[in-house]
Amino acid sequence: MSAAVLVEPARADDVDAILALRAALEDWMEHAGVVQWPRGSLPRAAVEAQLAAGEWHVVRGGPGEVVGTLRLLWSDPDFWGEDTTPAVYVHGLMTARSRVGTGLGGALLDWAAARGRAAGVGLLRLDCRTTNPALRAIYEAHGFTAVGQRDFPTFSVTLLQKPLAGA
C-alpha cells in the first residue's frame, strides 16, 4: 500500500497546471524514448470539458503547483467498449518527475481503488500503450492483470484491471 496523499477535485484554474504537467511529461517521454503520449496529444478543450464533468483530480505540491493528477471515470466506452461490468477507470495518471520514487503514482491508484470500493464496484481498470512495457510492468507490480488489447488506427493499448477486495 502506498502512502496516503490528499487528492482533491481539480478546479477550473488548474487547467494550465494540468497541461503544463502533461507537456513536461510528454517532453521527458520523447527524450527518454518512451512511447506513451505524443507531444500535444491532450487538447486544452478536452481538459476543460473533462474538468467541467468532474473527472480530473489533483495532488498539490504547493500553491498553484500540481504534482499529480488522474481522471476518474465510471465507464470508458472509448477504450473498453460497451462493457457494463461495474468498474472504476483511471486515465491521465501523471506524477511530476520531481516526485519519481516517492510512491505518489501508487497512492493515486490506491485513492482511485478506494473510490471504487466506496461505490461498490469490483474492478479498477486502466490502459497503457502496447509500446510502453515499462509502464505495464509498473501496473502489474501494483496488482493489475492484462485482460485484452484495443487497437486504434495509430496506436494500440493494453487493457489492465485489478479486483477491488471488499467492494
List the helices and strands and how they pair.
Layout: E1 8-9, H1 15-32, H2 44-52, E2 56-62, E3 65-73, H3 77-80, E4 87-95, H4 104-119, E5 123-129, H5 133-141, E6 145-151, E7 156-163
Helix pairs in contact: 1-2
Brief account:
By secondary structure, the chain is an alpha+beta fold. The chain is built from five helices and seven strands; from the N terminus they run βααββαβαβαββ.
Task: Describe, in plain words, how this protein is organized in 3D.
It is a single chain. The chain is of the alpha+beta class and 167 residues long. The chain has one domain: Gcn5-related N-acetyltransferase (GNAT) (Aminopeptidase), CATH 3.40.630. Helix content is 34%, strand content 29%. It contains five helices and seven strands, in the order βααββαβαβαββ. Strands 1-2-3-4-5-7-6 form a seven-stranded mixed beta sheet, sandwiched between helices. Helix 1 crosses helix 2 (44-52). The chain is globular, with a radius of gyration of 15 Å. The chain starts with 7 loop residues before the first strand and ends with a strand. The mean pLDDT is 89.
**CA-based gyration radius:** 15 Å
Largest sheet: 7 strands, mixed
At CATH level 3, the topology is Aminopeptidase
What structural class is derived from the secondary structure elements? alpha+beta
Work out the helix count: 5
